[in-house]
């Protein structure tokens, strides 16, 4: 929801009209346009109908007569009359979305602070006040031109529409690289993620073409998450303009967490905070230690043929293996799973003998396979392995602290931890 914020003066306060004592009726004639005449001691300029403020203001962009404004340049409106001032400006596109703007303290100048879209039509409404305190109004239509040559920046949100675990990040894939911080801020400000219930979250630039969005904590259970983009038609950088993006809606299920204590050889499964099952497991042996930290279920495969050569083990060596594996729940792209391991039944709950996966009985693996979904949380503690990387091998996003996560945002990197992102302009906020 957008809220109209008054731009009457600096500091957010509402400036009172400057009244001047009138010697007679003619002293209250409005300087420009059809004047309003008032007589007597109760005369008040604000009681008059607003006059046409055309002569009081000037636009930096072409207005009317079929002319089109350059979307690469900010829209600027200036008060011509040294004794008058601009009191409010509202600029909206055909969909009713606001253009953010800023008004100078003396009311002499207003300028847009968010980019205009190319090939778009805007309605600009300006309120003024002349030197006698009488109100003026002017509404104009403004069209922006379309660049002759440009590259389009499309956005693809992920994952696919559906129901996921509470650890599932939202992803945004860009069709072209964006490296400049100012350009990244334009992109990031246009990418919206909202959830019901609402939670605090932020985007993080994984690389020049990929962003991840996660909340400070996990998503709430049974939440609805919507991702959308307002980037279409917006200038991102030189010859790079925002393109299409299909909105995405996700839902979350129960909060499912599997916490494996590698030292205790045990996994405890929690549903919405309540422990519902304890499973004897075996994890990675020395030299193949299971990664510590939070991972997110990537997918499930009923059958996988696992070979040691896939992780760099030479065929025929002591550590070589080639095994049929069932009920395999994947947590890294490099091949770490939670799966059935009947060959290690004697070690489950007692020793770590795997090559990095979490092994358990076939019955327990089948239950885990049926219970967990993509986006559910799988956490390992007390292993001698490294911590799961945040990116590149699955979703290790949750292994970054919230402070470090925010450092990856072009909008909030310089704000203090826990504060709201400063991505809304001070006067006219952008509409969703």
The 3D shape can be described as elongated
Give a short account of the largest sheet. 6 strands, mixed
Question: Helix coverage percent of residues?
Answer: under 10%
Helical/strand content category: mainly beta
Oligomer: single chain
Given as residue ranges, the uncertain stretches (5+ residues, pLDDT < 50) are 1-42, 414-432
Number of E strands: 27
Q: Strand order, main sheet: write it out.
A: 13-14-11-9-17-16
Element string (H = helix, E = strand): EEEEEEEEEEEHEEEEEEEEEEEEEEEHEH
Our Rg estimate from Cα atoms comes to: 30 Å
The mean pLDDT is 84
Strand coverage percent: 25-35%
The total count of helices amounts to: 3
- Give the N-to-C terminal Cα separation: 7 Å
Give an overview of the whole structure.
This protein is mainly beta and 432 residues long. Helices cover 6% and strands 35% of the residues. It is built from three helices and 27 strands. The protein has helices spanning 181-190, 362-371, 402-406, and strands at 51-52, 57-59, 76-79, 85-93, 101-103, 109-112, 121-129, 135-143, 151-158, 162-164, 170-174, 191-196, 201-207, 210-215, 224-229, 235-237, 240-245, 248-252, 256-261, 266-271, 274-280, 293-296, 299-307, 322-330, 337-340, 358-360, 377-381. It has a six-stranded mixed β-sheet with strand order 13-14-11-9-17-16, covered by helices on one side. The longest helix is centred in the middle third of the chain and has 10 residues, at 181-190. It is elongated, with a radius of gyration of 30 Å.
